[in-house]
Design brief:
The chain has 124 residues and is of the alpha+beta class. It has three helices and four strands, in the order E-E-H-E-H-H-E. It has helices spanning 30-41, 50-57, 70-88; strands at residues 7-12, 22-28, 46-48, 104-108. This is EscU/YscU/HrcU family type III secretion system export apparatus switch protein.
């Protein structure tokens, strides 16, 4: 497993302040694991998609996502909203126009974690 196998990006979006979601954390290997752990500990939704994580990891921290990625990130936020609605038992997973997207999301690849006891490689 190379150091690029685990990757994660954290986005934040405040509709009142941001034109588009902003990359607030990004990394590979152990850094990616930390991003995911922090998100899960704080109740921030984690969306798992390897190609999305790969593309978003190319952006620098503090960068507003470019227009070319609006559709990708909108699909991520929509899926997060659908999942949240399903968990809450809401009838409609699609938000009304006046609702805002989640304040933060972490994007990571699908879990292909080694089973306990399997050797793991760490990046240095």
């Amino acid at each position: 497993m190379s150091r690029f196998d685990k990757k994660a990006v954290a986005l934040k979006y405040n509709a009142e302040q941001d034109l588009a979601p902003v990359v607030i954390a990004s990394g590979y290997g152990e850094v990616a694991e930390n991003i995911i752990d922090i998100a899960e500990q704080r109740g921030i939704p984690v969306y798992r998609d390897d190609s999305a994580a790969s593309m978003l990891c190319m952006l620098e921290i503090g960068t507003t996502i470019p227009r070319e990625m609006y559709e990708l990130v909108a699909a991520i936020y929509l899926q997060i909203l659908k999942t949240a609605s399903q968990l809450q038992g809401a009838p409609s997973p699609v938000p009304a126009r006046h609702e805002t997207a989640p304040q933060a999301a972490a994007i990571a690849p699908q879990p292909n974690e080694p089973q306990p006891g399997e050797p793991q490689t760490q990046s240095t």
